[in-house]
Amino acid sequence: MVFFLFMFYVGYSFKMDESFSKELSKNFINQLGSLDKIDIFFNNLKIALVMFIPIIGIAMGTISGFSTGLVFNSILDASGGAVSSYSNPLIIFLTPFGILEILSYGIAISRSGILIFEILKREFVKKSFIHLIIEIMLVSGLLFMGAIIEWMMIEDSFRGV
Fold first, then answer.
1. How far is CA 73 from CA 54, 107, 109, 114, 123, in A?
2. Which of 52, 58, 116, 130 is buried deepest, with most CB atoms within 10 A?
3. pLDDT in tens, 44-75
């Protein structure tokens, strides 16, 4: 979780060209209007499932955290400061869906690291596979709950628009 949060902060701190920032936030906001809770769930689940893959999962966690930070930065820039009433961008992970997503991604990235060591030590056994399946089911459930909450929050924010 700390790794994902760190990469988010690095992405958030990355200075972008103003036109790129505007285009990124515009595309993201346009995507939000056409999403429903199932779309959000499957998008987040695809990311998390890739994070379970040894080596690739750590790379995916890096890319996902960094790009999420970039998007968050561009949305704050596009709002002209109207949204940035908080000084710390990590505040987004204190939302109910943010907590569920960061916990899910942390589990997936951690399992990826554990699998690397188990494979290198040739200790990947039936018990490891069972733990992997249980964690995938747990992450799926957490992300499903998070998607419902996130969709409800998005719906509430678009009602006023």
1. 29, 25, 24, 32, 42
2. 52
3. 999 999 999 999 998 999 999 998 888 888 87
Q: Evaluate whether 31 touches 158 at the Cβ level (below 8 Å).
A: no
pLDDT in tens, 124-133: 788 888 999 9
Residue ranges in 35-55 assigned as alpha helix (H): 37-51
Residue written as token pair 């690739």: 56
Tell me the C-alpha distance between 121 and 115, whole Å. Answer: 10
Contact 96, 39 (CB under 8 A): no
Distant-in-sequence, close-in-space partners of 109: CB < 8 Å, separation ≥ 6 = 3, 4, 51, 57, 58, 61
Q: Where are the domains of the chain?
A: 2-159
Q: How far apart, in Å, do the first and last CA atoms of the chain sit?
A: 34
Whole-angstrom distance, CA of residue 12 vs CA of residue 85 = 15
